[in-house]
Amino acid sequence: MTWMVWTTPTAIFFSSIAAMLAGMTLWEILSPTIERKGFLPISTTRGDRLFIGLLSAAFIHLGVIGFTTLSIWIALALSAVWLLVLMRWG
After folding, report:
1. Is the overall model pTM greater than 0.90, yes or no?
2. pLDDT of 4 strictly over 80
3. In this structure, is the dihedral angle defined by the CA atoms of residues 2, 22, 80 and 50, taken in order, positive or negative?
4. 23-79: per-residue pLDDT in tens?
5. Which spans in 3-71 are helix H?
6. In this model, does residue 7 exceed pLDDT 90?
7. Which residue range is the domain that position 28 belongs to?
8. Name one Pfam family in it (predicted).
9. Contact at 8 Å (CB) between 90 and 39?
10. Is residue 25 located within the same domain as residue 41?
11. Mean pLDDT for the stretch of residues 4-18
């Protein structure tokens, strides 16, 4: 990825998102999803919950960076736990 002049963490971040999207595509092809209602106030599919999880992870990171002196690794851990909870029960 030197042609993009990315740092290693940036390359890992975007590669991970691409892998998640590819995995979700395969999962959707093998097992089509149905809408369901969890603790979110709307009916969602797996793709909807992944999108909401990624969007909220960005806000978690911005909140940690902007309002605390905590390590970014804590934001990563919080985001990962939130995404797992959202995908399972959201």
Report:
1. no
2. no
3. positive
4. 999 999 999 988 999 999 999 999 999 999 999 999 999 999 999 999 888 998 999
5. 8-30, 46-67
6. no
7. 1-32
8. DUF2160
9. yes
10. no
11. 81
**Looking at the structure, do residues 44 and 61 belong to the same domain, yes or no?**
yes
Amino acid of residue 17: I
Residue with tokens 């149905």: 34
DSSP type of residue 41:
S
Output the six-digit token pair for 49: 């919950």
State the angle between helix axes of 46-67 and 8-30 in degrees (0 to 180), rounded to the nearest 10: 160
Tokens coding 13:
């971040």
Residue 2 has pLDDT above 80, yes or no: no
Distance of alpha carbon 58 from alpha carbon 5, whole angstroms: 22
